[in-house]
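Entry:
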Amino acid sequence: MADVAAAPDDGLGIPPVLTPEEDAEPPEPDDTGSAPQTGDEGVSPDQVSPDQPPGRRREPDEREEDDRGYDDLRRVHQLVNNNFYGVVDATAAAFGFGAASSPGLAPGTIEPEEAGRALRFYLPPQPCFDEALDKLRENSLVVLTGQDNSGRGAGSLALLREILGDEARLRSLSPANALADLAASRDLRPGQGYVILDYVGELPDRAVQAYEVGRLSEELRRKGSYLVVTAADTTRRRLALRDHCVPWCAPDPVELFEHCREMLPHTPLAPETEQELLERVGEQRRPGDVVAAAVILPREGAEKALDTLRDRYRERVQEWFRQQPSADDLLPLAALAFLEGVPERTFEKECAALAAHVRNWEQSGERPAAEAEEETRKVPGGAVARQSRARWKERAVGLVTTEHRPGQGRDAGRSERRLVFTSSRVRELVIAELHDLYGYGLWYPLRQWLGDLALRGDLDTRTEVARGVALLARHALVEVDENLLKVWSEGLTNQRVTAALTLQFMCDVEHLAPQALNIVLSWTDNSGQGRALTAAMALTGRLGSLYRLEALNWLWFLTQRGERIAFSARRSLVLLLQTAEHDPERVLFILRYVRTVIARTGPGSRERSIALHTTVQLLEAVRLETAEPVTAALLRTVPDSARHLGALWADVLHSGNRSRAVSALCRTLVQLRDDPSVTGAVHELGEAMRNAMTGRQWAALCHHLSLALKHPDYAIPGARQLAQVLLGSLRGRAPADPRRVAARLIPTAPFPSAQGGRSK
């Protein structure tokens, strides 16, 4: 079969295939850059995988367990794709796959209009802005260090626009890019401005060296390009970057507020109101909060602006903890922080389990968990006569309420009472106070309890645990990584799914998204089978949407590992395509990537066999919400998808995956048979397939498809007519023995019933 290369207008510039030890090069400016890494051929299920450590307990049926784990992920992604759990709070974050809350978070091109919107009210903080500008002009490289939410990201865009002009198209690189490799990369273009937001450093075995940073600076100067990196304060301690760092700070909040007011319609204020407003503004530490209040002022008035600054929920939560609650009140609220919205009966059972963990810890002779700094409190006794449900009316007034919500799946039509916080913000504030006020005595039994829930909880419970742990990671990232994620990532299926979901929810906070990526990438190679499986799960959904090239590169690398890891990687690639259905740009990116990978493999090679096997799974995929083939939905809604799908089908139709490819094509035609609007797309699909085949191959396809459409599941009025549109004619050159072909193409077992097809 002729290899199908990516079309010239796709802009795919693929560097040489990398070995597992090499780092990926930065992507091309059209986000379709580097090729995946390759490795050894996977072992058969009967062989012992080299990733399986000796003596490790194996799950009873690993394939069945992995299937169940991906079923769980699919269910969660289906909900996230629809409404992204509307009760999740992520201040200043945008929900939905592929969306980014600020320019540059997702690697790719930052258009001038996008940067202009982000910098509309920008006020350069002094003297750090001028110091950074001088370093950037001198070295073409500067690193902005400082606290999160201090405006480093906006500062990076402002610095580059100051040098390159307001009409410059800037380029955001992945925080996983190795600075040591950028200088040698062919992707640094002349006169280009680059940003790396929230850089987290190299992987442990690739520490950046001073001479490599110097070489990068020299290469940038030679090309007239500029790179601004934002990072946490700890970056200043790295000798290699020390001379390029500028400590960043937020602008004075009152000055920023007045700056915004000058650019907005004038709003007259009473002297006392203006004084209170300025006092509240002066207390703010996030420039975004100051700008939000300034924008609200002319629209909705002073009271609304004050409300955004007062943060009444923070005041309520802090006041509640100042009263030094007893264990009877503290432990249920702590449990709710990780189990909000589960059915009340489930919450009560798990709350009792937390109390048991605390009791066991205290009986070990250590200090009681719920003890305040100066006094010991009693653990809840659990008396039957206690009206525990009624206690919520006085336990956490203004913080917790009850709602009746329907369940998922079979319980979707039945609602039951659930405990929820009065605002999504309260949950994060409660976790922050628990972390700030209580130590090992509370968090040790709490971590044990969370570990139990990650192992044995149902999917709804584990999803809430993951969401709560992601909120905790905002305040205790190292603790979450070391004590929870690392343990769960090499555990059983439930634990791995919980770890993967935690990393997905961490991506709702800008400065945590790069950290989540760094954690996942550290698990992909030389970290054991369990963590590689968890990494494959985590590289789907939100993480795979933000860092699409890294996700595809590393998932494709994992398809070269042992059979179990390869299976998970293929399932994750399918999930990436399923969750991208409503994002046409990401769909085309995935399809172009797969085409390019196939084109780079040699005929008959192991890599090609693996690539084709993965491709046919993508073509067989169904949508998250229904049993409709994803290919049918893409042909209907994503312009230009037919060209790429046609090339992929041409590849797999003349390989060992022929039967499955024909079946997937038939299911797609059956699904589209009653939709006249797709006739043009189906014709384009056929043209793409014809252009990628020889005349003999095309004639054989016509014959094989004609035979397949006689199967009862596909012999449906309209399907054959649509096939005529696809192929122009179903009359092809018949092989020597049509019955042998039919026997090979049409399985004796029934095909999966096509949606809308007739029953047998």
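The chain has 34 helices and eight strands.
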